[in-house]
Design goal:
The complex is a heterodimer of chains A (305) and B (370).
Chain A lengths: L1 H15 L12 H29 L3 H5 L11 H11 L9 H32 L5 H10 L9 H10 L6 H9 L2 H12 L3 H9 L4 H12 L1 H16 L3 H6 L8 H8 L9 H31 L4
Chain B lengths: L3 E9 L5 E10 L4 E5 L6 H9 L6 E6 L2 E2 L10 E4 L11 H11 L4 H14 L15 H13 L5 E5 L7 H18 L2 E6 L2 H7 L2 E6 L2 E6 L1 H6 L4 H6 L6 E4 L1 E3 L2 E3 L5 E4 L7 E6 L4 E3 L6 E12 L3 E8 L2 E8 L9 E6 L5 E4 L4 E2 L7 E4 L1 H4 L3
Helix pairs in contact in B: 2-3, 2-4
The chains are: A mainly alpha (305), B alpha+beta (370).
Subcellular location (chain B): Cell inner membrane
GO molecular function, one term (chain B): ABC-type transporter activity
Protein name (chain B): sn-glycerol-3-phosphate import ATP-binding protein UgpC
Chain lengths: 305, 370
């Protein structure tokens, strides 16, 4: 019986074990080709629409409206991009994509940073301090998991109107900042920090604030990076809330503007500018992921202790 | 330089569990006091109360004559070495050692002087720019010691600092800690569950069990005169042999019915008779206390061998020097010098013998059942 189990474990280990060169043991050449074929197919499915959008963004409106669309970039790259960024787009009141990018960056950064600051502080309080109703507050935060913006959208909107926060960056970001998920993530991470480390810091004369600043923050930095990436993209792609809380065209985020640029009548839509805006809307999140990839992956898989 | 005094210290947790039940210990200036006991005996709790990491439910703890009950750990002027070292993983060795000093607002060059000198003492100079995860267990241990030394505190507290090291390294570090503590002359409290560590390190040995102090004394005094059967079996490896006694018409009887004519123990209190494995001698040898020993297993350790077996209805261990050709199944007489016998009452407390007393096994073989 025991031998049997050992043999079974052994064979599983052989199948799952990785060789030094990173290839799986027990997988032959042909199945490796198949694996690559599937990967390439997946990349094509994801990448081709993006490539096609780019191609469209370099064509004139006439070319786009007269199918089929060429598969290679056209000669209007410079014209289209400068018009979109600096010239202003008629259908959204002459606002340029530069304003849209600025707005969206403020919103995405505000949400990401705000969420991280608020949730790391509340997790710090919940894990390392003993105060009355601690568990009540923990559950209160936990329950907001069930109340995303979409659920509480009417009361939240009313509050924003009453506070005069329509068409402001505060109104765009504040309701999206409080986050139970991030608080829980930091709480779980803080719970894995050995009690001895906290005690060593106490003996070393570090008060709560010093402990937070000198020990907790540096240890959390990969978690913070991972959370920043996720939250930045979450903020960047917000649709419903910015749609409600902004009226003025120059306060739109890029996703909202994109929607407004598309008219129901094909001929009214400046498709080449829409495509440019699409490309520019994709770029920042991709950049964030590319630049922070290493940290992001480390934050998800590694706990540094 | 300081004394540490504990007066009727108690720890009751909110659940009602009493972890420390009124402990009083006086630790002299510069002494190394070892708290030893099985897990859950309250020794770590006691240490953490001295450190200020646990609140004191009742009683007083004084460091250098000053009651510190209400003072936080940072202001008690103590330094602690933790079981898992508790090094700050993101800081270099240098910063690990300097952190406590920086928090106290010490001048930069003074910090540097102290860290460099501690690093030199502990042979860490080459490692100052490394991070803890790049160090071996023994090196981490030394960094943890360094962090305590640079503080130049009144008291060192050690919470099982060697339990994560392998046996060989543990032996080395034990000697190093002792040497360091001697040369620095800082009063130290050291918690361990390892009786060998306790015996070799301690100036003052405190044996704890179930939240109470079983015995306080110099290590060899505790070994020679264990105050209770708990101490007798906890201190010393292998533990002391204990033979239950019953009251017989003319004295005490062993489990198999052999009667002891005893003048050593006044009254009838004696319930257990004990002797250390190394105090038993193979052969009758003229000692008045002799048993018929039936060997069941032999453990050769190299420098000595342990004979596990049975005599008078109880399991015994007898140590013989060097190698032996005794085999399981052998029968032999085993005797113990009278002065090497210990007696305990029914509650397990040591019974002091009357000086002239001699234990004589009466009617030796005839009384034994066939």
């Amino acid at each position: 019986m025991a031998d049997h189990a050992a043999a079974a474990t052994g064979s599983t280990a052989a199948v799952l074990g990785r060789r030094e060169d990173g290839a799986m043991v027990g997988i032959n050449r042909r199945s490796r080709y198949i694996a690559h074929a599937i990967l390439i197919l997946g990349i094509l499915v994801v990448a081709f629409p993006i490539f096609y959008t780019f191609v469209a963004s370099t064509q004139s409106l006439q070319t786009i409206l007269r199918p089929p669309l060429p598969l290679l970039p056209g000669d209007r790259f410079w014209d289209n991009y400068t018009t979109a960024i600096f010239g202003g787009i008629g259908r959204i009141g002459g606002v340029g994509v530069d304003t849209l990018l600025f707005n969206t960056t403020v919103v995405a950064l505000g949400i990401a940073i705000g969420k991280i600051v608020i949730s790391i502080l509340s997790a710090f309080a919940i894990v390392f301090f003993r105060f009355p109703f601690r568990m009540f507050f923990f559950w209160a935060i936990f329950i907001t998991l069930m109340l995303p913006v979409e659920v509480r959208i009417m009361p939240t909107y009313k509050v924003m109107v009453d506070l005069g926060l329509i068409d402001t960056y505060t109104g765009l970001t504040l309701p999206l900042m409080a986050s139970a998920t991030a608080t829980l993530l930091f709480r779980q991470f803080f719970l894995t920090i050995p009690g001895e480390l906290v005690e060593a810091a106490r003996v070393d004369g570090a008060g709560p604030w010093r402990f937070f600043k000198d020990i907790l923050l540096p240890l959390s930095r990969t978690n913070i990076a991972a959370l920043f990436v996720i939250m930045f993209i979450y903020g960047w792609t917000q649709y419903l809330w910015p749609l409600l809380v902004t009226n003025r065209n120059d306060m739109n985020t890029i996703v909202i503007a994109l929607r407004k640029m598309v008219s129901f009548a094909d001929a009214d839509t400046e498709w080449h500018l829409v495509m440019v805006t699409c490309m520019l809307a994709i770029a920042p999140p991709v950049l964030v992921v590319l630049l922070m990839q290493r940290w992001f992956v480390r934050g998800l898989v590694e706990t540094e202790k | 330089m300081a004394t540490v005094e504990l007066k009727h210290v108690r720890k009751v947790y909110s659940g009602g569990v009493e972890a420390v039940k009124g402990v009083s210990i006086d630790i002299a200036d510069g002494a190394l006091c070892v708290l030893v006991g099985p897990s859950g005996c309250g020794k770590s709790t006691l240490l953490r109360m001295i450190a200020g990491l646990e609140a004191i439910s009742a009683g007083d703890i004084a460091i250098d004559g000053k009651v510190v009950n209400a003072i936080g750990p940072a202001e008690r002027d103590i330094a602690m070495v933790f079981q898992n070292y508790a090094l700050y993983p993101h800081m270099k060795v240098y910063d690990n050692m300097a952190y406590g000093l920086r928090n106290r607002g010490m001048a930069k060059d003074e910090i540097d002087k102290r860290v460099q000198s501690a690093a030199a003492t502990l042979e860490l100079t080459q490692l100052l720019q490394r991070r803890p995860r790049e160090l071996s267990g023994g090196q981490r241990q030394r960094v943890a010691m360094g962090r305590a030394i640079v503080r130049d505190p009144k008291v060192f507290l050690f919470d099982e600092p060697l339990s994560n090291l392998d046996a060989k390294l543990r032996g080395q570090m034990r000697v190093e800690i002792k040497r360091l503590q001697r040369s620095l002359g800082v009063t130290s409290v050291y918690v361990t569950h390892d009786q060998l560590e306790a015996m070799t390190l301690a100036d003052q040995l405190v044996v704890m069990n179930n939240g109470v102090v079983e015995q306080i004394g110099a290590p060899l005094d505790v070994y020679e005169k264990p105050a209770s059967t708990f101490v007798a079996s906890f201190i010393g490896a292998p533990p002391m042999n204990l033979l239950p006694l019953t009251r017989a018409a003319n004295g005490h009887a062993l489990k198999d019915g052999q009667v002891l004519a005893s003048t050593a123990f006044d009254g009838s209190a004696a319930a257990l008779l004990g002797f250390r494995p190394e105090d038993a001698v193979v052969g009758a040898d003229g000692h008045s206390f002799a048993l018929d020993f039936h060997v069941l297993a032999v453990e050769p350790v190299g420098a000595e061998s342990y004979l596990h077996g049975e005599a008078a209805g109880s399991q015994l261990i007898v140590r013989v020097a060097g190698r032996t050709d005794v085999k399981p199944g052998d029968r032999m007489p085993v005797s113990v010098a009278d002065a090497r016998l210990h007696a305990f009452d029914a509650a397990g407390k040591r019974i002091e013998r009357s000086p002239a007393g001699v234990i004589v096994r009466a009617a030796a073989v005839q009384a034994a059942p066939a």
